[in-house]
């Protein structure tokens, strides 16, 4: 009901998605409100791209292609990038490790980290990759404090479930006060005439994608399902399909789409919604161009679907809403036979207004005027909440200000080495010693607490500074060094201007002629220096 209201509002008024969600929240009865729980809006972008077995990103490809208007400042809280058909041959790893060329993951990570985003590692030593599929999740650094927990699951569907070249990567992210967002990056069977197998893959992924709480994706608050689903346009002549594309009659072309038919018949993906398609089919193109391959019928293989839970209410009086306000492709990306597809969502979440994080860092802190010194042992002081018990392998790490992922630490220390100092109002005061040989060079850093159980950072400190005492002593010495007095000398003949040359010569001649004592007594010393 509320979703229909949002759709009608977007048709009648030209207002931003933020305003639509705020207007929806204003209509909630105040009597059902829960004290201390406030909503916030999690703006999420999803990108899916089949890279057509390209080993390394070509020179003419850059993630800027996804942001034609402004690629410098990205107005998102979370960005999920799903890639399919990545090259997984040994030559790919040899090229990236020996020749030091950037892989697809490194290219995206460097691009987004330079724009204020951090990649979630899900506590994996590598990346979320299954054979040719890759899932990258980036969160804005300022929004990391709202990520409570993450987990991942891999489902194989190739060769009746024995091979991972087809399947799905399922990732769950808990945002705010226990609101779960599930991301599913999939690559299904490519046979155009075997839609039944793709339906079987859909059911298998839905059944096996059970995370730690043994729930299916549909049981979570939000699900974003995307990837190369390989559903084709069928039972239409190629000339008619191209004619519909030229006339931009995409809704008419979708009447022949397999996924649209299956959803209408409630066979597969009927629980999910899809934004109206207003772009050309994403498959199949001649690589290097934007021209369709004449040997294949153009189809919408790359899709992005979404849904919210049936009982989409996190707490009484606090409904969960998801609003999609962009769905399109990028024709300028020409390195593959697919076109990348992107969608943007506004997701409602809730957080306790007076909530206390599990770990609250107190020192060092630039705000509190405390720092660390190079070449000396330093102490990290923090408050551990009473109801929080750290895991056996949880650690506190030192991060650079522009760290690229949550495992990109300069140094770290396990929380097992902490000792209790006292009791504060919100928890237990703890200290951890960082020995002198582990102190990073001078600069600005952050402290972060990584939970192995939650697989993410659960706390970040204020920026602090590491100072080198030797450089500090040099700067103080340069300030206290006495200044040398300048030796003032009498002006010489060279200091006079050309206009005064005649007067200077006349004065010199007068001094030589007056040699009697009376003249010498009355002579000005300023004139004597002119000799």
Automatic annotation (TrEMBL):
Q: Which organism is it from?
A: Trichuris muris (Mouse whipworm)
Q: Which SMART domains is this protein grouped with? A: IPPc (SM00128)
Q: Where is the signal peptide?
A: none
Domain Inositol polyphosphate-related phosphatase residues, every copy: 40-353
| Protein name (record) | IPPc domain-containing protein
Q: Which GO biological process annotations does it have? A: phosphatidylinositol dephosphorylation
Q: Where is the composition biased (Basic residues)?
A: 477-487
Q: Name one GO molecular function term.
A: phosphatidylinositol-4,5-bisphosphate 5-phosphatase activity
User: Which Pfam families has this protein been placed in?
Assistant: Exo_endo_phos2, SKICH
InterPro entries xrefs: Endo/exonu/phosph_ase_sf, IP5, IPPc, SKICH
Tell me the protein family, please.
Belongs to the inositol 1,4,5-trisphosphate 5-phosphatase type II family.
């Amino acid at each position: 009901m509320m979703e229909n209201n949002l759709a009608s509002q977007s048709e009648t008024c030209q207002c931003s998605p933020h305003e639509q969600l705020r207007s929806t929240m204003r209509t909630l009865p105040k009597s059902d409100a829960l004290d201390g729980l406030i909503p916030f809006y999690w703006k999420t972008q999803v990108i899916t791209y089949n890279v057509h077995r390209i080993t390394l990103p070509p020179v003419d490809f850059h993630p800027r292609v996804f942001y034609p208007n402004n690629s410098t400042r990205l107005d998102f809280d979370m960005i999920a990038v799903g890639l399919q058909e990545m090259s997984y041959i040994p030559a790919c790893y040899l090229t990236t490790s020996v020749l030091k060329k950037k892989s697809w993951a490194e290219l995206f990570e460097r691009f987004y980290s330079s724009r204020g985003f951090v990649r979630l590692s899900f506590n994996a030593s590598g990346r979320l990759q299954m054979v040719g599929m890759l899932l990258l999740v980036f969160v804005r650094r300022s929004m990391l404090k709202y990520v409570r927990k993450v987990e991942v699951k891999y489902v194989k569907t190739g060769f009746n479930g024995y091979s991972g070249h087809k399947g799905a990567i399922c990732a769950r992210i808990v945002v705010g006060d226990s609101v779960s967002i599930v991301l599913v990056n999939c690559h299904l069977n490519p046979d155009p005439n075997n839609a039944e197998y793709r339906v079987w893959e859909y059911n298998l992924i839905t059944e096996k994608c059970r995370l730690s709480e043994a729930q299916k994706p549909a049981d979570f608050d939000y699900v974003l399902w995307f990837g190369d689903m390989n559903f084709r346009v069928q039972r239409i002549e190629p000339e008619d399909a191209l004619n519909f594309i030229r006339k931009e009659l995409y809704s008419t072309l979708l009447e022949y789409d397999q996924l649209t038919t299956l959803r209408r018949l409630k066979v597969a993906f009927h629980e999910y919604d899809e934004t109206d398609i207003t772009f050309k089919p994403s498959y199949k193109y001649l690589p290097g161009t934007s021209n369709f391959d004449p040997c294949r019928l153009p189809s919408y293989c790359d899709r992005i679907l979404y849904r919210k839970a049936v009982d989409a209410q996190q707490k009484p009086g606090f409904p969960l809403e998801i609003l999609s306000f962009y769905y399109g492709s990028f024709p300028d990306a020409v390195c593959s036979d697919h076109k990348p597809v992107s969608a943007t969502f506004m997701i409602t979440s809730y957080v306790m207004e007076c909530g206390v994080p599990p770990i609250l860092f107190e020192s060092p802190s630039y705000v509190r005027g405390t720092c660390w010194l190079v070449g000396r042992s330093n102490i990290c002081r923090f408050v551990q909440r009473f109801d929080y018990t750290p895991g056996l392998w949880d650690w506190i790490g030192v991060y650079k200000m522009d760290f690229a992922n949550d495992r990109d630490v300069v140094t770290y220390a396990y929380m097992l080495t902490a000792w209790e100092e006292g009791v504060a109002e919100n928890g237990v005061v703890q200290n951890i010693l960082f020995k002198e040989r582990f102190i990073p060079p001078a600069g600005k850093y952050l402290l972060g607490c990584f939970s192995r159980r939650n697989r993410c950072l659960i706390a970040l400190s204020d920026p602090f500074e590491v100072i080198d005492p030797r450089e500090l002593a040099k700067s103080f010495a340069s300030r206290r060094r006495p200044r040398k007095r300048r030796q003032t000398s009498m002006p010489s003949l060279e200091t006079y201007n050309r206009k005064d040359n005649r007067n200077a010569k006349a004065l010199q001649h007068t001094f030589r002629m007056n040699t009697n004592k009376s003249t010498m007594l009355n002579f000005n010393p300023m004139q004597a220096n002119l000799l």
